[in-house]
Amino acid sequence: MPQIIYRQMKTGEEQAVSRLVEHVFNEFVAADLEPAGIAEFFRFANPVALRARRQPDGFVLVACQGDDIVGMLEFIPPDRIAMLFVSLRGQGIAGELLAGAIRRIRANNPQLVNLTVNSSLYAEPFYRKLGFQPTADATTVNGIRFIPMQRSLAVADV
To answer: Closest Cα partner for 78 from 157, 153, 155?
Structure first.
């Protein structure tokens, strides 16, 4: 099995990254949402939107195994993990993506204290394992049900 390589998403890979997100979302998250929430998610998670959100301090990290993208993490400044999706479970890919993101965030924005994420109900236990804690009860916005969470950047890397 080829080694997993972690790197920044290259221009032109938005389609492949979005396919990964769509596959994992449909398998694990969509069942918890109404049709309006699913449509809202895909207004955010598509190649055109992913390309449009590129900004100087934001980034998308990918995990690649051979020619396949098997994981992705999008960071949107000033402090938000917008998406974290992995197709291969139990291999530490999400933790490596988060650790890489934290290293980059600390280098680019050393004064940042916390990372935030709006976790799906499905992913909430996973985010807890990565050091995130809920900051409020689950809520629904535009049909998407989520739990606001944050993680101190003072916590050791994942």
So the answer is: 153
